[in-house]
Write a structure and sequence with these properties.
About 45% of the residues lie in helices and about 20% in strands. The protein is built from ten helices and twelve strands. A hairpin with a 3-residue loop joins strand 11 and strand 12. The longest helix is centred in the middle third of the chain and has 54 residues. The two termini are about 55 Å apart. About 25% of the residues are buried.
């Protein structure tokens, strides 16, 4: 590709679809092919012996001198450098240049292969704009959610004090030796206390939900099997009280956030025991395993029960805060356990899914990256 090449060799190079250019240590062109000449709108006589930076725009010429040439002199190679060729008519052509140096000092020769850079299509520009808009919407949603979490935490805190006073004074009124309440009035006070108790449970749940929405520090990393054993040990009295049977299957060898995963597992076990069917021994199955996606290793943890279950069309709504599909008097609680668990799962980069059928039990699957 230089002046020393014979005519047949130059003819072969002129047939290549890739533009070829070489220049010496002084920066003067010593070889080119027909494709390069077409890109810059010049003939071979005009190009040979000229300075290579005269074929580039001013900005690209500066970038060549300050970055590309030092890189070539130091490392001998540069790949897919984005520059702009200057056509003789003044138009600019974005190109990608891959270059290799041979020799040193005054004997150095740089061989370049040049390809036009792909121009961005309208579709690509629309896609980039959509991505920017989606990122803006995501940032706005995060700010709104953060504001809602702060409001929920503040409201829960402010509601706790009057609720505690209602419970405290109601309890004193109910159990005071000086109280001469009619039996029906005592029933009213007892109902008031029960309602206040439920309110306090909802407030506590709301505060916990708000805390999971904030950036939190990662919990200690522990083997999954150890986390499962600890949760079952902590939950043993509830399991015993419900006469439940718990079966733990094979667990993968993976270290997890013990705090978050433990909380999710505890919430799922609590739900499985709470929503049991009358006259049926509660059976809880805990199992886990690996998924094999192409991008990153992922593991799953599943809790399956034989309880009341739910209609499949309610699977997604189960994770809404305060949603209750069953009688609140028969199944006490604030309706925030699953919402909190989903937030914890999402905070770890995963998700929680639900499957079930009425009176056939429910299955909850936590999926997380390893």
């Amino acid at each position: 590709m230089n002046r020393a090449l014979d005519r047949p060799a130059e003819d072969v190079l002129d047939t290549l679809p890739c533009a070829l250019l070489c220049f010496d240590g002084s920066g003067r062109v010593c070889g080119s092919n027909a494709r390069l000449l077409a890109l810059v709108g010049r003939n071979r006589r005009q190009v040979m012996g000229s300075r290579v930076d005269t074929l580039l725009t001013a900005g690209s010429a500066m970038f060549l001198r300050t970055y590309v040439l030092p890189l070539l002199m130091g490392h001998g190679q540069a790949d897919e450098i984005a520059l702009d060729l200057q056509h003789v008519d003044g138009s600019e052509l974005p190109v990608l240049i891959s270059a290799r140096r041979e020799g040193l000092g005054a004997d150095a020769v740089v061989h370049c292969a040049i390809l036009p850079a792909p121009r961005r299509t309208d579709h690509e520009r629309d896609l980039q704009r959509a991505r920017r808009e989606a990122e803006h919407a995501r940032s706005h949603l995060e700010r709104v959610n953060a504001d809602l979490d702060r409001f929920a935490a503040s409201a829960a805190h402010d509601l706790s004090e009057p609720t505690r006073k209602v419970r405290a004074f109601g309890d004193r009124l109910l159990h005071s030796q000086r109280s001469q309440l009619h039996p029906s009035d005592r029933d009213y006070v007892a109902r008031m206390l029960a309602a206040a108790e439920r309110m306090q449970g909802m407030i506590d749940g709301l505060m916990q939900l708000a805390r999971t929405g904030k950036a939190r520090e990662d919990g200690p990393r522990r083997p999954l099997a150890e986390v499962v054993r600890q949760v079952l040990a902590d939950f043993d009295r509830h399991i015993t009280a419900a006469a439940a049977e718990v079966v733990v299957g094979e667990l993968p060898d993976v270290e997890v956030d013990a705090t978050a995963v433990g909380q999710v597992l505890q919430n799922l076990l609590s739900n499985a025991i709470k929503y049991r069917r009358e006259g049926v021994v509660p059976q809880l199955h805990i199992e886990a395993g690996w998924l094999n996606p192409a991008d990153a290793p992922t593991w799953w943890l599943r809790v399956r029960d034989n309880g009341t279950g739910f209609a499949p069309e309610h699977a997604c709504r189960l994770f809404e805060p305060f949603l209750r599909l069953h009688d609140k008097h028969k199944y006490p609680g604030a309706g925030l356990g699953l919402a909190t668990s989903q937030r914890l799962a999402q905070g770890l980069g995963g998700c929680l899914r639900a499957e079930g059928r009425p009176n056939e039990g429910a299955t909850f699957t936590l999926t997380l990256p390893a």
